[in-house]
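Fold it.
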Amino acid sequence: MEELGMGPNGGLIYCMAMEHLEENLDDWLTEELDNYLDDDYLVFDFPGQIELFSHVPMLRNFVEHLKRKNYNVCGVYLLDCQFITDVTKSVSGCMASLPAMVRLELPHVNILSKMDLVTNKRDIENYLDPEPQLVLSEFNEWMAPRFKKLNKSLIELVDEYSMVSFIPLNLRKESSMYWLKLITAFSMVKIKDFDAAC
């Protein structure tokens, strides 16, 4: 980073978008993936910089590479529950997850992490699967009247994608981990495989 005069975000995008990862997908990644069994779950943990989903095609290329190799892929977006304690943060969280959902074009699961740290679960329950009209009403109460049209457009956008909901994850509850594993497994099942299993 210092050599190229870049900050952390610029260095990360340079590293991922340039030769270090993308040019080595066929050689290095394929060789690494051969070490795993067909029923193994592999987790690729990418940093939370939104630029990786919205500005550069590297992650989409990475996903396409995995699909070409016949891997079932699911996008999982983690949002810290501390960022969803009021309506403005909730809408921001939904808007932050959309680029990953839209750009990667994958089955997708949004997770609200660190639920074990929440003292008042009721503060968050309304935002797990938000009701658009209630969110809009509360959003308008928080924001200046001049933002009503913008608020309505944002809520309509989130509602149109009606897939923006969050699954709570509490690492202290085994049932929470089981539920998450089940949901991600179902999201990766191909329709023809699901029909055959039924």
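DSSP finds ten helices and three strands in the chain.
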